[in-house]
Amino acid sequence: MAISHMGSAHCVEVPLSRDSRHETLRRLAEQGDIGAQLQIGTMYLKGMGVIPDYNEAAAWFRKAARQGSISAGRALAQIYLLAGNASVKNGTNDIGWIRKAAEQGDTATQWRFGMMYLLGSGVAQNNVSGAHWIRQSAQQGDIDAAAALAGMYLWGKAVNQDYTKAAVWFHIAADGGHIIAQTFLAGLYGAGKGVPKNTNQTLYWLEKAAEQGGIFAQSRLGLLYLAGKDVPKDDAKALFWLRRAAEQGDAKAQTALGVMYLGSNGAVQDDQQATFWFRKAAAQNVAVARTALAMMRTIGNNAAERKQFISALKEAIETSSEEPKKLLDSMLPKQF
């Protein structure tokens, strides 16, 4: 594996897998190789072959930062975001290195720095500074920053709420392939907020996100096809997308899939499959799923009761609240 890094004049080939190779990497890092220092820091950050340790990761990133590595500043910003309110030891100069990377134009650092200010992670909470750095990054074409800025306009966080600007920035991020932005943009088209209501655009962007593995888009797409209210009802597509979301752990999709397996919704009646998916959802504290499990023991094969039961479950699923916070949480940077 070639270790490449910003701020170093050379690349060092370092195979990583077992103890001897780890020792080689550490020796290079201790000798001042920036790439090795960044890689060891990343190992501790992500728990790659070692116990995750933000403080140990930060210690190695600082060694690279002292040598002028912009990547180290970006990585330190990520640590502060992931650590939240937990203290990062010996971080006296960390903010300075993060700021330096941001001021040098590294867009990934800029929007992470902005998020630090918005969340008060490692710095005093400051909406003005947060908005400044996120906007700087977004205006340079960073799609993560564009999605974050769109979310700020959507909820009026650190800026005045503006659905039109939210749609503009979500569109920029969505065009760049950002899954969360695509999902939110679909929601704006569905609600007619910031853009004219357009079901075709809703489906288009949900499918874009769903095809990339977006769990929320898959779930929403499946539920739309199952309900058949805003889009033509299509049980086959509903089953396909709900299963994909359910297999990724989406509790709402698991519940809806259980309902489909109760019968009369495009899936062959299979009470074992229904029970399986209801249990999955119930384990995530979904009240509808727990109710479904209890009711299944009483209705048996009574066709009229089963039909009424299915109808009631579908209504409960359709009217249950969405979980935008999970989408927001997923916008936080997870990778260096």
TrEMBL record:
InterPro entries: Sel1-like, Sel1_AlgK, TPR-like_helical_dom_sf. Pfam families: Sel1. SMART domains: SEL1. Transmembrane segments: none annotated. It comes from the Bacteria. PANTHER family: ERAD-ASSOCIATED E3 UBIQUITIN-PROTEIN LIGASE COMPONENT HRD3 (PTHR11102:SF160), SEL-1-LIKE PROTEIN (PTHR11102). This is Sel1 repeat family protein. It comes from Phyllobacterium phragmitis. The lineage of its organism: Bacteria, Pseudomonadati, Pseudomonadota, Alphaproteobacteria, Hyphomicrobiales.
